[in-house]
Design goal:
Elements lengths: L10 E4 L4 E4 L7 E4 L2 H8 L7 E4 L1 H10 L2
Length: 67
C-alpha cells in the first residue's frame, strides 16, 4: 500500500560505538511493535503509539542514547 508498513522484524544490537541492525526474528531483552511511522517517532524521541514487551530498563537505556 506504499505507506512503509508491513510484516517484518528487526533486531538492533548495540556495539562499541555503533549499532548493528539485522532483519530477523530473534529473542531480545525488549521488543516494540507499531507502525513504521510510530517506530520512527520513538527512535527520534518524539513519542509514538507502540506496544512494548520485556525489560523496561533496557527500553529506557535505548531511549537515553537514541538521537
Amino acid at each position: 500500500d506504499g505507506d512503509g508498513d508491513g510484516d517484518g522484524e528487526w533486531l538492533l544490537i548495540p556495539g562499541d560505538g555503533d549499532l548493528v541492525v539485522t532483519r530477523e526474528h530473534a529473542k531480545a531483552d525488549v521488543a516494540a511493535s507499531g507502525t513504521a511511522s510510530d517506530l520512527a517517532l520513538f527512535v527520534w524521541g518524539r513519542g509514538g503509539d507502540l506496544q512494548f514487551w520485556g525489560d523496561k530498563d533496557q527500553l529506557e537505556a535505548w531511549a537515553s542514547v537514541a538521537p
